[in-house]
Amino acid sequence: MGDVKTAGLSGGPEPVIYFPYRQSGRIDTGYLGDNIGVLVRTVVDPAAIAPEVRKRVTQMDSSISIGEMQTMDRHLNKAAARPRLAALLLGCFAALGLVLATVGLYGVMSFLVRWRVREIGIRLAIGAQPRDVMRMVLAQSVRVIFAGVVVGTGCALWLNRLMQGLLYGVSAADPLTFCLAIGFLTAVGLTASYLPARQASAVDPMTTLRAE
C-alpha cells in the first residue's frame, strides 16, 4: 500500500498495518463495533449509486443502518476547511497590505515630486528633456522599491516557519513563489511611481520659476 495521511494533510503518514477484518477476533466474540467505515470505488457519479449501496446493505442485513455517506472529495474538503479558511484570511490581509503599500508609495513619490518641483523646473529650463526627468524620478522609485524588496524578503524568510502549517505540497520558502511575489510587487511599485514621474516630466519650467 502507498502512504496515507490519516492524521490530516499537514501531518506525515503514520505506521499502519492492514489485515482482514475476519482475523481481528471481533467476529468470533460477537463484537462488531459501533461504527464501521466502508469505501466504495466507482467510475460513475457517487451520488448516483448511493441509493443502490443502501439497498444492497439492507438486503445483506436489515439490522445494519447506514449513517453518513459522503464522497472522498467532500471528506478532503472537510479536512482542509480550517487551513483553507486561515489561508483565505491571510490572503485578504495580504491584499489589503498590498493596496496600502501601493497607495503609500504613490503618496511618497508624489510628495517627493512636489518637494523637488523647483529643482525639476530648473533642470528643464537649462535643457533637460522630460524623459530625463521621468527617468530620474523612476530611478529614485527603483531604489525605494529595491530597499523594500530586500527588507521584505528577509522578514518573509524569517517568518516563513509560521506559514508552514498552512501549506500543503509546497515549502514556505519555495523559490518560485518568492520570485513571483518579488516580481509582482516590483511591478506594482513601478506602476504606482509612473504617475508621479509623468507629472514631474510635465512641469512647466517658466511657471515654476516665476512662482519661486
In short:
The protein is mostly helical. 64% of the residues lie in helices and 0% in strands.
How is this structure best described in words?
It is elongated, with a radius of gyration of 32 Å. The chain is built from eight helices and no strands. The chain is mainly alpha-helical. The mean pLDDT is 77.
Largest sheet: none
| Class from helix and strand fractions | mainly alpha
Shape: elongated
How confident overall, as mean pLDDT? Answer: 77
What's the helix and strand layout?
Layout: H1 26-29, H2 46-60, H3 72-79, H4 81-115, H5 117-125, H6 130-159, H7 175-201, H8 205-211
Helix pairs in contact: 4-7, 5-8, 6-7
Features:
single chain, 212 residues, mainly alpha, 8 helices
